[in-house]
Amino acid sequence: MSTLESIRAAAAQAARVVKPPPPSRNYTGVVVSAGKMSKTVKVRIMKQDWNHRIRKYFDRPVHYLTHDPASSLREGDIIRLASGNRFSKNVRHVVTQIIAPFGPPLSERPPLPSLDDIRARKDEKKAAKTERKSARISEEISRKREEKRLQREKRRAKEAGKTGGAEAADSEEPKPYAKGVRSDMVIEGSGGLHHPGKVHDRAMANSQKAIRHKEKAQENEEELRRTNERLEQIRISGEETGKTGTEEMKEEDEKTDSKGGGWFRWR
To answer: Residue 207's pLDDT is what?
Structure first.
């Protein structure tokens, strides 16, 4: 083996990352609840707390949710469990040995896998999950690329249609009616059913109607101005003669009635 090959082999060995097992600690406990959760049991272990007042250690029970891969534990079993193995959000311990079974013997229960087998199976599931995730991401990227390609083709076709649409627009014949009005449309108006006609005719009719309304408004303003001037003259003449405006108006109306017409008629 040459020196170059040995250096390459050493570099490949150094580049290969070996994942060490997680830090673990073994406990001995008693199964207090089993069969209520899938492949999970509740185990009670005894810990000790230091009492500063009495200066003495006292036992304190602690409960852990423990992973049971083969569902081989029963309530009352004395087992050995290991920490540092996360199987879910709240399950971070796994059973490694049944010290003293309670109830059915071990021969009648499913065999308990070793910790190495459990970790290997867990790594396989994680690798399969990672592969599925990578395939899903690749599929999503391919789908987005295909959508972008279709959008580009549609945009190019639209631009090509715009450039070639001018010649087609020139060759088209003019329509008899404006946009939004069909030749077979019938409208019901004050005079009965009739066709709407062209936009130009309707616009001319509307403009003539607006002119008539404007002239009528000017006539009303002129009449109001003359009325105000007449009332002001009556008020001034009433102040000179000492009569009220109502009396002056009555006298003037009586004179006008005698001539055959009047502005106001008093009943």
So the answer is: 84
